[in-house]
Specification:
Number of strands: 13
Structural class: mainly beta
Oligomer: single chain
Strand content: 35-45%
Distance between the termini: 15 Å
Largest sheet: 5 strands, mixed
Helix content: under 10%
Length: about 190
């Protein structure tokens, strides 16, 4: 996915009438188009199944501070998260990304994930507000803090306005094992 100032193919996806489908065990790369934009995704859920939702943004170099909501078949919010960690004094430091861990689905039917900005978005730089949403089945074992692997090539880029880097994001299961081939999302950060 080239993160540039062009339209995102999933738009519009702001309501439960036009969500972007996502399957369990999958990731999707997208971006917030404006301060008023919020993206909705849908998946088929089964009563009693546990799911975990991860929104990676700041940890992959985005300016987005995401909020995530899990909504039931009627659109009612069942769970939400704003920041994984806000403690500047913890060993891990602050983490403004969002996740919902091991949530038991109360019924069978369509469920919705909503991603929105937690802070204002610079309208002149919407290409900087990208994220990766990952939907995993939960409830197997204890959750691992290692839900992604991130690398950049090259790791350092001169601020010359012409150089680029590719940030590769590999989602992992809650037990820190690879999700599998074909699940890698690569971003090319363009000046």
């Amino acid at each position: 996915l080239a993160v540039a100032a062009t339209a995102v193919p999933f738009e519009p996806n702001e309501t439960i009438l036009n969500p972007t489908p996502i399957a369990l065990g999958r990731s999707v790369a997208a971006r917030i188009e404006s301060g008023n934009d919020h993206d909705l995704y849908s998946f088929a859920g089964t009563a009693g199944r546990r799911v975990s939702v991860f929104v990676h943004a700041r940890q992959i170099g985005s300016d987005l501070d995401p909020r995530v909501y899990l909504r039931g078949p009627t659109g009612l919010v069942l769970a939400s998260d704003d920041d994984i960690g806000e403690d500047d004094l913890s060993l891990a430091g602050p983490d403004p990304d969002s996740r919902i861990l091991d949530f038991p689905l109360p019924t069978t039917g369509p469920f919705f994930i909503e991603v929105e900005p937690g802070e204002s978005v610079d309208a002149d730089r919407t290409e900087d507000y990208f994220y990766v949403l990952t939907l995993l089945e939960g409830g197997v074992d204890a959750a691992s803090p290692y839900t992604s692997e991130i690398s950049a090539s090259p790791a350092c880029v001169p601020a010359d306005g012409a150089s680029t880097t590719v940030v590769t994001f590999r989602p992992r299961t809650l037990q820190a094992t690879a999700v599998g081939p074909g699940k890698t999302v690569a971003f090319e950060l363009v000046p």
